[in-house]
Amino acid sequence: MIKFSDIKIGDYVMAEYEGKMWEGEVVRLNGDEKQVCVQTDVQEFWFSQDQLHAIPLNEGTLMKLSFTKQPNDDGSVKYMKGSFRIVTPKAGDFSQMEMWYREDRRHNPNVHFVHQLQNQYLDMTKVHLTSSPM
Question: Strands across the sheet with 20-30, in order?
C-alpha cells in the first residue's frame, strides 16, 4: 500500500483489481475520498489506497524510464537521464545511492520505488519523470 500523501499525478503504480495487478499512471486524485484514478493499458479506473502497490526501483525500471547505464572503474554504476544522475555502489544494488541534478546532491535519499524516484526527480528538476508506460 502506498500512502495517499506520497502519490502525485503522473506517478507509475501497480493497481490491484479482482486479484489482478495492473501497471498504470496516476491521472487524477480525489483527496476527499482518498481515491486515485489510474490509467492502465485497459482503461482509467478509480482505486482506493489499499489497492495501490509500489513498483520496485531496479535497473529494469530505470531502463524503462529511459535512463542510460555507465559502469565505473570502481564497480559502481551511474544511471543518467539528461543532467540527472544516480550512482549505486554496484549494478543492481539500490540499497544505497547518490543522486544529483546540477548543484542539488542527495546522498542515500529514501528512494526504493519508482514513484519515490519520480517525486525526487520532480523536486530536483521541476519536471515530472515520465517515459513510455511502465
Answer: 44-48, 35-40, 20-30, 12-17, 52-53
Alpha helices, H only, the chain: 59-64, 114-125
Q: Provide the sign of the torsion angle of the four alpha carbons 128, 46, 114, 109, taken in this order.
A: positive
Domain extents in the chain: 4-53, 59-125
User: Which grid cell sits at 122?
Assistant: 520532480
CATH of region 4-53, choose from 2.30.30.140, 2.60.120.430, 3.40.30.10, 2.40.240.20: 2.30.30.140
Distances 45 to 22, 27, 40, 105 between C-alpha atoms, Å:
11, 10, 8, 37
The tens digit of pLDDT for each residue in 7-52 reads 999 999 999 999 999 999 999 999 999 999 999 988 999 999 999 9
What is the model's pTM? 0.90
One-letter identity of residue 134: M
Cα distance between residue 102 and residue 31, in whole Å: 34
Q: Could you tell me if 24 and 39 are in contact, meaning their C-beta atoms sit under 8 angstroms apart?
A: yes
